[in-house]
Amino acid sequence: MILVTGATGLVGTHLLIKLVKEKHQVRALYRTENKKEYAKSIFLQCCSSEDQKTFNTIEWVLGDLNDIPALTIAFRGVTHVYHCAAMISFNPSHYKKLRKTNIKGTANIVNLSLINKVQKLCYVSSIATLSENTSQNPINETAEWNPEVSDSVYAITKYGAEMEVWRGTQEGLNAVIVNPGIIIGRGFYNSGSGYLFKKIYKGMKYYTTGTTGYVAVDNVTEIMFRLMNSEIKNERYILVGENLSFKNAFALIAEALNKSIPKKKVSTFLMKIAYYGQKFSHIFFRTKRTIFKSSIKSAFSNSFYENEKIKKELTYSFTPIKKAIEETASFFLKQEE
Asked: Can you tell me the distance from the alpha carbon of 95 to that of 61, in angstroms, rounded to the nearest whole number?
């Protein structure tokens, strides 16, 4: 039996598709019926008519990462765990919630994996935990966390979660960690990269000058599956298909959606004005904030990532990001019809 946490998210839902196609028994952890039903709708849309029947083979368990009774039930008879669940926020006021979900929740998964003698754990982390190399070379798996650098609360808690996984390996747990870049995939357009598709579809005109790594969701799930079915253990892998500037990535999305390409470059000065404007509005009118100091830093950082380790270990070739964007855009447009 395989357990998937975060089964109703982008990676989790596409991982379920992969696992049931491979005829595995799957148990999925979910938090709300609405999220489960949405994941089901994406599952069915992404599968052939024959594969759609496999959704009913999934065993669902209601609970979250800090619900020990639910987790105890979920772990019964489990041999492999894909830990995809996480809270994503860059708002400093959410730090305690992020710690509870990302660090304490991962500690619970690790502890129950040890107690139940799980054969292997795969943890989905992020390139956000990889500090830039001071040598200006592309970032690879040897990059170490730099506590002196001001990182987002999300990155801090994801790094803390990684430490829980490494702690588990010291106590006898076999594990692998994957650090994906920005994940491009079908069906989830209210968060992550999917939100960019929605913003650009509605006419977003601006771009920032940063660069980062991107990867197709099917690459992420395929690599996770292959790592879990290999002899590889206690290793981490950067999952980035290509490094793209935000300008180029936004242009590819706009073209795939048949929308105008964002052509107005935003300066750090304007972003800071927007940051303080939002902060003022939030304090006095309780409006929602979307810009934070860490997000400004990310928007203008030029980070380049290597993928040689995973390509060599698995003899793997990544999907071109242009193709992943076109498939995701096509799916988005069908939903908008």
From this structure: 27
Distance CA 218, CA 187 (A): 13
Q: DSSP for 75-128?
A: TTT--EEEE--------GGGHHHHIIIIIIHHHHHHHHHHHTT-SEEEEE--GG
In what helix (H) or strand (E) does residue 117 lie, and over which residues does it extend? none
CA gap 337, 335 in Å, rounded: 6
Give the mean model confidence (pLDDT) for residues 91-98: 94
Give Rg (Cα) of the chain.
20
* Location of structure tokens 């180029």: 248
Place of tokens 């006095």: 284
Q: 3-state DSSP call for residue 314?
A: helix
Q: Are 6 and 12 in contact (CB under 8 A)?
A: yes
The residue to which tokens 């938090």 are assigned: 31
Q: Residue 169: its pLDDT value, please? A: 97
Collapse the DSSP code of 61 into the 3-class scheme (helix H, G, I; strand E, B; otherwise coil) and give the result: strand
- Per DSSP, what are the bridge partners of residue 83? 5, 123
What pLDDT digit, counting tens, does each position of 45-55 carry?
887 777 777 88
